[in-house]
């Protein structure tokens, strides 16, 4: 390789057209998935304090926001339900006319080309806020599986294109695949939160979803952020059980995991830029300490550079708006 003064890396950094010409990674609007929090009622648009620009929406408001997102070229949305009633088992999670089920029906009816992904987990629906049923104070893995299958089936019946289990129970991907197939939903895909870490960065989400555990924490089922090899084992297991796409979560603190999983599997890898990662940037922006638009764009670009094919981000629609819709930009 030539050295200075023959080779001058700055030659190709002089102007924006030159930089654009040699740019390696460009975040496209088509890469982004917009998450939404759905509540019952009509005309409800409640802002989430710790997540500027994010709202709890009733189905009618959701359809209106999702329509704008779809017009800007956002290909997919991810739905979280906030039910009116919670109980020990999270039984409002599999109601035929639950909030998420109604939201899926409305979206598929109004915007058929928009891909609808549903989060499958009990924590938004249980009174204790854990991701499964409790037995002697601990989450009972095997008893939870059947309930997750009921929930996933109710989403598939409503028309979900993809179900995304985020509970981190062992064996859930296989259980969901068998349940979906047994009911004829061979074409409903599974996006598995394969490597989901017990992260401090989920705080604002739990405000938005009202899902903070009443006692203890999630370290008994979510992964230790110190572990990388284990993430690869989790991913392999989920692929063997029938996962179609792999999720890594959080994204910004797991760029190495995203890279390794993409290299090792070649599967579609989806990275979740989570609530706390978003909130940290927005809060620093509100303080005037950083430029949030640039910081978010840089972060999304880094996540894509690490190997993510899709990125779930609360900023998806805003990114699309700022970058002129479908064209995308970096
Ligand atoms: C449900 C779930 C959580 C998130 C996605 N699905 C919360 C949690 O595990 O506590 C977090 C998403 C975010 O922070 O943006 N289990």
Short synopsis of the structure:
By secondary structure, the chain is α/β, with parallel strands linked by helices. It has helices at 16-21, 59-71, 99-110, 141-158, 172-182, 203-209, 229-241, 255-265, 275-286, 292-305, 316-322, and strands at residues 32-39, 45-47, 55-58, 76-81, 115-120, 134-135, 138-139, 162-165, 189-196, 245-249, 269-272, 310-312.
Write the layout of secondary structure elements.
Elements (H helix, E strand, L loop, with lengths): L15 H6 L10 E8 L5 E3 L7 E4 H13 L4 E6 L17 H12 L4 E6 L13 E2 L2 E2 L1 H18 L3 E4 L6 H11 L6 E8 L6 H7 L19 H13 L3 E5 L5 H11 L3 E4 L2 H12 L5 H14 L4 E3 L3 H7 L8
Parallel strand pairs: 1-3, 1-4, 1-12, 4-5, 5-8, 8-9, 9-10, 10-11, 11-12
Antiparallel strand pairs: 2-3, 6-7
The structure holds ligand PBG.
Radius of gyration: 20 Å
What is the terminal separation in angstroms? 29 Å
Rounded mean pLDDT score: 96
| Range of strand content | 15-25%
**Count of separate structural domains:** 1
Count of helix runs? 11
Strand order of the largest sheet: 1-4-5-8-9-10-11-12
CATH superfamily: Aldolase class I
Structure keywords:
12 strands, eight-stranded parallel barrel, globular, 11 helices, binds ligand PBG, TIM Barrel, alpha/beta
Description:
It is a single chain. The strands form 2 sheets. An 8-stranded parallel β-barrel has the order 1-4-5-8-9-10-11-12, surrounded by 7 helices. The radius of gyration is 20 Å and the shape is globular. It has a single domain, classed as Aldolase class I (TIM Barrel, Alpha-Beta Barrel), CATH 3.20.20.70. Helix 7 crosses helix 8. Helices cover 38% and strands 17% of the residues. The longest helix has 18 residues. The chain is an alpha/beta fold and 330 residues long. It contains 11 helices and 12 strands. The model has no long low-confidence stretch (mean pLDDT 96). The structure holds ligand PBG.
């Amino acid at each position: 390789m030539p050295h200075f003064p023959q080779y001058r890396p700055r030659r190709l950094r002089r102007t924006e057209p030159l930089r654009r010409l040699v740019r390696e990674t460009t975040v496209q609007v088509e890469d982004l998935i917009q998450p939404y929090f759905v509540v019952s009622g009509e005309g409800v648009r409640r802002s989430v304090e710790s997540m500027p620009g994010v709202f709890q929406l009733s189905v009618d408001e959701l359809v209106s926001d999702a329509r704008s997102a779809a017009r800007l070229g956002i290909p997919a949305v991810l739905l979280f339900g906030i039910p009116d009633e919670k109980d020990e088992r999270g039984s409002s999670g599999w109601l035929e006319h639950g909030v998420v089920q109604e939201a899926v029906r409305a979206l598929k009816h109004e915007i058929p080309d928009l891909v609808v992904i549903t989060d499958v987990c009990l924590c938004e629906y249980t009174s204790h806020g854990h991701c499964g049923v409790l037995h002697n104070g601990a989450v009972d893995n095997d008893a939870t599986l059947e309930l997750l299958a009921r929930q996933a089936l109710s989403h598939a019946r409503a028309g979900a294109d993809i179900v995304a289990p985020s509970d981190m129970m062992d064996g859930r991907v296989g259980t969901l695949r068998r349940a979906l197939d047994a009911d004829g939903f061979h074409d409903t895909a599974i996006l598995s939160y394969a490597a989901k870490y017990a992260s401090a960065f989920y705080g604002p989400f739990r405000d938005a979803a009202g899902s903070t555990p009443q006692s203890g924490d999630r370290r008994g089922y979510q992964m230790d952020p110190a572990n990388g090899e284990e993430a690869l084992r989790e991913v392999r297991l989920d692929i063997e059980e029938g996962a179609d796409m792999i999720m890594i979560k959080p994204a910004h603190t797991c760029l190495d995991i995203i890279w390794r999983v993409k290299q090792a599997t070649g599967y579609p890898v989806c990275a979740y830029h989570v609530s706390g990662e978003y909130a940290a940037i927005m809060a620093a922006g509100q303080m005037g300490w950083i430029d949030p638009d640039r910081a978010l764009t840089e972060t999304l670009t880094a996540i894509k550079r690490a190997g993510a094919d899709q990125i779930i981000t609360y900023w998806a629609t805003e990114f699309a708006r700022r970058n002129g819709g479908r064209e995308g930009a970096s």
